[in-house]
Amino acid sequence: MIAASHLTRQFGTRVVVDDVSLTVGRGELVALLGPNGAGKTTTMRMLAGLIRPTRGAAAIDGVELTERNGSRLRRRIGFLTEAPGLWDRLTVRENLEIYARLYDVARPSAAVDALLSQLGLSEHASMRSAELSKGMKQKVALARALVHDPDIVLLDEPTAGLDPEIAKHVRDLLEERRAAGCALLVSTHNLDEAERIADRVAVIQHRLLAFDHPDALRRRFARGRVRVRVAGEASRFLAIARSFDREASAHGAALTLQLADAEAQTSGLVRQLVSAGADVVEVSHERAGLEDVYLHFVKPDPEGVSA
Fold first, then answer.
1. Rg of the chain over CA atoms, in angstroms?
2. DSSP letters along 194-260, please?
3. pLDDT digit string (tens) for 196-225?
4. Residue 74 CA neighbour count, 13 Å, CB half
5. In the chain, what are the domains?
């Protein structure tokens, strides 16, 4: 639905985003990961049509986002920036209704009421934005990004600094939007959150370093460590384990070994153990987490400027 094609952005001589290509499909949530200064926000601003790429293009349903059609295509996008940017002297309702009218929402008051209820903001509707907590401001900013019912949603750190209850509320709302067929691109530093909510993960540090399903990325960096628990003393079957790994060990009822390809070799290991009379109680794999994948790709950036 929305695509970046060889997006590049320079500020002076500094290349902040370098040849990034990725897609987000209908009903898909892509998590955009990277350290501060990696180009995540700049990438999202280019996709939203707020800044022009130095090279490359952003497109919606195959139509390139340009100065000529930008205003029309941007109506399909809801964008939450890292800073809420609300009008402090206006109430929550006034903030949202102004945006609803700017987007020509047919029934702005009704649309705002629905979002206030959905996000648990109804009782705060008459409060001025300046009086809200950080978490409440973030929820209002999210409501503003969704008030025109966009089919593409770009969210820059939507749960940053929020308490767990509000963060869960935001994740639930994202899940609802995904189920409704929205394309969602979410920038986050929360790797646990990304692992739970993302269909695909994009790791960026100026360039796109990895882009795949979380499970596929984890498999690429699986450590291959396998633990097999049997009934009785595991040492009876140590010779079998060492036919797979010379360094295999036995401790009590557990065999521990390293396999070159855990997914392909574990079934053969279990078959041999059972054939030798082992009662296999449990087999567990030590899997790489998304944090392992992230740290493999991301290196310290000596020029780490927020972008």
1. 25
2. HHHH-SEEEEEESEEEEEE-HHHHHHHT---EEEEEESS-GGGGHHHHHHH-TT-EEETTEEEEE-T
3. 899 999 999 999 999 999 888 877 776 678
4. 18
5. 2-218 (3.40.50.300), 222-287 (3.30.70)
Return d(Cα 93, Cα 123) in angstroms, integer: 11
Instruction: Report which of 133, 142, 193, 186 is spatially closest to residue 164, judged by C-alpha positions.
Output: 193
Contact partners, residue 99, CB within 8 Å, separation at least 6: 144, 147, 148
Low-confidence ranges of the chain (pLDDT < 50): 305
pLDDT at 230: 97
DSSP string, 147-158: TT--SEEEEEST
Q: CA nearest 92: which of 149, 120, 119, 132?
A: 132
Alpha helices in the chain (DSSP H): 40-47, 70-74, 92-102, 108-118, 134-146, 164-179, 191-197, 214-220, 238-244, 262-275, 290-297
Q: Are 24 and 1 in contact (CB under 8 A)?
A: yes
**How far does the chain reach from its first CA to its final CA, in angstroms?**
24
